[in-house]
Amino acid sequence: MHLCLNGHLNWYDPQKRKSIHLALTQPTLLIDVLDQLHVPIAEIVVGVVNGKTVVSLNDLIVTDTDKVELYPPVDGG
Predict the structure, then answer these.
(1) Which secondary-structure segment (H or E) carries 25?
(2) What range does the domain containing 27 cover?
(3) Which alpha helices (H) appear in the chain, and where do they start and end?
(4) Torsion angle (degrees, nearest 10) of CA 18, 23, 26, 30
(5) 76 assigned to some structural domain
(6) Which one of 38, 73, 74, 75 has the minimum C-beta count within 10 Å?
(7) What's 29's domain CATH number?
(8) pTM for this structure?
């Protein structure tokens, strides 16, 4: 799986990577992957899987061939 941590989400990765390649041996819940990487799901506002916006990340199952992009909230003014 190719995981993109956009915005400040890469701060949760000890290596501060914005792009991570993970080998998944079986379909896996995304929240389990994020838990292993210590990325809090509460910090994610938008998820895109294989180019399609995902409404709920809580029950999303990902596979080794998926590209997942995650975005935090953005504040500006």
Answers:
(1) none
(2) 2-71
(3) 30-36
(4) -10
(5) no
(6) 75
(7) 3.10.20.30
(8) 0.90
